[in-house]
Every structure is written in C-alpha cells, then in structure tokens.
Amino acid sequence: MKRVLITGAAGFLGSHLCDRFIKEGYHVIAMDNLITGDLANIEHLFPLENFEFHNHDVSNFVHVSGKLDYIMHFASPASPIDYLKIPIQTLKVGSLGIHNLLGLAKEKGARVLIASTSEVYGDPLVHPQTEDYFGNVNPIGPRGVYDEAKRFQEAITMAYHTYHNVETRIVRIFNTYGPRMRLNDGRVVPAFIGQALRGEDLTIFGDGSQTRSFCYVDDLIEGIYRLLHSDYIYPVNIGNPNEITISDFAEEIIKLTGTDQKVIYKDLPVNDPLQRQPNIDKAISLLDWTPKVGRAEGMKITYEYFKNLPKEELVKMPKEF
Ligand code: UDP
Predict the structure, then answer these.
(1) Is the pTM of this model over 0.90?
(2) Given this model, what pLDDT does residue 315 score?
(3) Which residues are catalytic?
C-alpha cells in the first residue's frame, strides 16, 4: 500500500486531499497543528485503519516511521486575515516547514508536491498569468509574509530537486472554493455567503472592479492528483480561468442566496491584486486537465454546505490566535 504524508490535513484543501487519497487506496498520514485547521474536516476518517492523524507543527522536526512514497505540503495559513494575524508562523511553515519535509523526502526517497499559489505573481502585470511570469510582489507589504514564504518554498524545492535529486512537483493554486472553507476565514466566498446568511450587507473591498477566477475544490484536487503522478517538475497553474469582477460576484451571491441585503464598500486592502486569471495551457497539455464544475454549480453546493452548518458557526468571530 502506498503511503502519503499530507500536511495541513485538517484544513480546507488538505482534508479534501485526505479523502481523495483514501478513495484511491492509500495509507494516509495526516499532519496538522490545528492553528487554522479543524478536526471536524477529517473526523469521518478517524475510524479507518489506513488513516492516522498527528497533531504536529511541521516547522519543527518532522518524523514519520516506516516507508513513505509521497509528501503533500499543504500546511499554511491561506487567508489574508489569517496570515496577517500570524505572519511569523506563515513564514516559518513556508520555509522551515518545507525544509524539514524535503529532508524527510530525501531520507525516505519520497516524492514531494508543494502547494504554491497565484500569490507568487503578486499584483500581476501580465494577464492572464503564465507560469513563466516572475511576478510583482512587494516583499515588505502585508501580504509579503505569505507570498515570499511561498516563493522561497518553490526555490528550496527546486534546489532539493537539483542538488539532492529529490522528486518534486509544484502546483500554483488559484482562488479555490467549496465545502470546508472556514466561514469566518475572511476570504470572499465565505465572507459573502456568511453575510447573506446573517442578513448583513455584503462588503466589497475597493470599488469591486478587481477580478478573481474561482475554481471548485473537486476540480483543483483532480488537477493536483494528476500533477503528482506526472513527470513534470516545474510549476503548473491549476485554477478555473473564468474571471469575474468582485462586484459582479457579489451580485451573483445576492441572487444565489435570495438575500435582500445590499453591497457596501470598504477600503481595498494594501497590495490587493487588481486582476487574476490563470493561464492553464500547461495543465491542459501536460495533465489533460480542465475544470469541469462551473461557478453556478459549485457555488450552489458551497452555499448548501454553509447553510447547513450549525447555527453557532454562523456567528463565530474571526479566529484569534
Ligand atoms: N474581498 C471583498 N470583500 C470581502 C472579502 C474579500 O471585496 O469581504 C475581495 C478582496 O479584496 C479581493 C477578493 O475579494 O480583491 C478576493 O479576496 P480573498 O481574500 O478571497 O482572496 P485573495 O485576495 O487572496 O485572492
């Protein structure tokens, strides 16, 4: 049986990866320090024999006994309000964390896939973003702690590949949504749906002309699974190229939820990217992958998930660390 270590396993993407690898017949070693993750996302896997959970911060030395075939590094705060509150942990998990995991991979002969991000492109001057674009990141701005950690993570991963022959894969993940996002994580999908469910006005940051391209989580997981098993070592964008302004997106959420609330405008966060759309030519040609779930369908599933959460989830304040 193949054995995979998944870091950030109790988080949004990590928990979906756990499900996928379990479905494929793997033994899953799930690791999370639960700083932003939630055991509720993986508790359904606890009774399984081929699933184990370790409460551990991968920024500290990581030990796994027995053989290990794959390491998926998905541990990191991922929403702007989280990584602004815990900037040092964000930097550490993207640097010390991946260093520990690459060392483990070298020791075990495991293949490592790292979760990189469209944030490596910063506020992009090339649109749509292709993998060969070097990006436009402000290293000392508030988002720098996340963006630069992820950029360092790519650099050290390539270095371990080049100098230690570790097998590595790099996925650059664009905005992804779906069940198990934290309702209070501050990102636009849970923020708007949470506001609609609470009967609050929807907060648009800036004038709402900034764009994002939203990918449904199942599509993303499929792309990542294919990339892991491909032989391509350079970064690959995975995302849905269907781009929309945040204003239009707010209108879609108002229609979807049937709320009679309005939109209100707040300041645009510093260095908030003005446009974002993945060029997915590489994913198409190398992985034969394209997203299958449109925004209308994916948002409907996501809305149902949030609507059915226990009422107390709805009023939970953003997490304090
Ligand atoms: N945004 C917004 N209102 C909110 C939360 C976010 O208008 O209540 C905007 C945010 O400024 C950004 C976009 O929505 O332009 C996507 O934000 P998110 O935090 O989801 O992701 P990221 O900026 O990392 O793409």
Answers:
(1) yes
(2) 84
(3) 146
